[in-house]
Amino acid sequence: MNADKTKFTVLGGINQVLLLLVLIFFILHFAKAFLVPIAVSGLIAMLLVPVCVKLEKWGIKRALAASITVLLTLLLISTVVYVLINELINLGTGMAVLGDRLNTMLDNGHAFISEHFNVSKVKQKEYLQRQVSEWSDSAGKVVSGAFFSIVYILGNMLIVTVYTILILIYRSRIKNFVLQLVNKYAGTGEVAHTKFIVDEITQISSLYVGGVFLVVFILSIIYFIGLTIIGVENALFFAIVAALINVIPYIGSVAGGIIVVLYTLITRDTLTLPVIVTVFFTVVQQLDSYVLTPNITGGKVRLGPLFTIMVLLLGGMVWGVAGMILFIPILGILKVIFDNVDPLKPYGYLIGDT
């Protein structure tokens, strides 16, 4: 009888955990528009806390210090965006050459298919024309959707800016709120321990996010110098894009290299340059994987590759690209909590790499 009672108790506990997980992911998915700006703002605020504290020590009031810090960061991001747009415009000036190359490749493709699969060029072109007409019908929707997407992005940037400033201003109040909750429900003895955990989370998150941006900066310089020496046109554009995509663990470094390799395949008559670019990106990826990331960010969030990839895919399912970027530091924050709460230490050990 006691064994059956124990079995039902265990099953009931498992069901409760599963129900909680389903509820959490349901909320995360359907509250994406509300939660993503808060998560982004929280991470940026943690990154900017040391700068804000420095300004406050110089006698600047907290509200003004927070505003200056966030606005300078926004100016830096806007500068990068401006450079990317300017380089993209320069890339557009060579579209005529790119179009000629694509036409040549299509003609070669038509000839290959006609020779090996007995499909006439007329039938191939009829099929392509049908596809083009279908794409043209949806082009208007894409253009109108792009306009609303730009408005949506600008609106989110404004929201994130306001959230970040307010989080920096009210960071002490938020911290005291957490400590008051712990004092009420766990007792005074846990307040000091909780304060240590909160400070640890803030420090690690700041170092991790700062380390990610430092890696992006270093990679953009390496990519720019390397692609310029190799002779790739618009090297600055591809260097910045490849470095930014590298923010997404494991997938980003490969995707950035593929973009440049495909561009060189289309724009050059020889395979020599694409091969050299492939070798260059492979070497830089090894440098990033074994030198840059482990020494700059790897020591801040020690996560095992298994759970990093799982969280990466899960973040993509729940929040898209934003989730793939945000879920890694969020998992790192959870690991800090797990490592400092005795009943949760096994979970911290499971997802860790040390």
Number of strands: 0
The ordered H/E elements are: HHHHHHHHHHHHH
Question: What value does the Rg take, in angstroms?
Answer: 26 Å
Q: What count of structural domains?
A: 3
- Label the overall shape: globular
Distance between the termini: 43 Å
The percent range for helix content is over 70%
SS element count, helices: 13
Low-pLDDT parts are 138-147
The biggest beta sheet is recorded as: none
* Mean pLDDT rating: 79
Structure classification:
mainly alpha
* Strand residues, percent: under 5%
Your description of this structure?
There is one protein chain. Helix 7 runs antiparallel to helix 10 and helix 9 packs antiparallel against helix 10 (272-298). The chain is globular and about 80 Å long. With 354 residues, it is an all-alpha fold. The chain contains 13 helices and no strands. The protein folds into 3 domains: 38-186, no CATH class; 208-299, no CATH class; 301-353, no CATH class. The longest helix is centred in the middle third of the chain and has 49 residues, at 121-169.
